[in-house]
Amino acid sequence: MIVVAGVLQRDGKVLIGQRMARDRHGLKWEFPGGKVEAGETPKQALRRELREELGVEAEIGPEVARYEHGLPGRTPLILLFHRVDSFDGEPRPETFEQILWEDPLTLPSFDFLDGDLDFVRRIARGQVRLLR
Fold first, then answer.
1. Which of 27, 113, 130 is nearest to 77 (CA)?
2. Rounded distance, CA 45 to CA 13, Å?
3. Please, is 74 exposed, middle or buried when counting C-beta atoms within 10 Å of its C-beta (0-12, 13-18, 19+)?
4. Spatial CA neighbour of 5 closest among 76, 82, 59
5. How many CB atoms lie within 10 A of CB 117?
6. Is 0.85 topped by the overall pTM?
7. What is the pLDDT of residues 22-41, one digit of tens each?
8. Measured between alpha carbons, how far is 59 from 88 in angstroms, rounded to an integer?
9. Are the CB atoms for 3 and 77 separated by under 8 Å?
10. How far apart are CA 52 and CA 15, in angstroms?
11. Phi/psi at 65 (nearest 5 deg)?
């Protein structure tokens, strides 16, 4: 399964979302995005997910990270992270408890989904080029 996530930026900060309490992995933090459906490219899927989750129309930029994440007894996920070059509309937490704009260096202090942790560490260490 392929999962795509977007990195939205504003004033040097990145947008993160907290899952709804009632959802699987409730109250964990993540980058907005989701599963790539049949017939979609990863960029199309991310554009759709950002519309559904945040209410924005986004221009999806290049992939900035990719890796496999597996849990015992489950099919591994291929995680793709894309920079979001621009977006129209003000992000709203349509499917999140809350969204926050955070400094990349503070991200490791949040309780992220296991699949996002490697990317969070890369960002905090400055190993991911986010700006255009």
1. 113
2. 23
3. exposed
4. 82
5. 14
6. yes
7. 998 999 999 999 999 999 99
8. 9
9. yes
10. 15
11. -165, 150
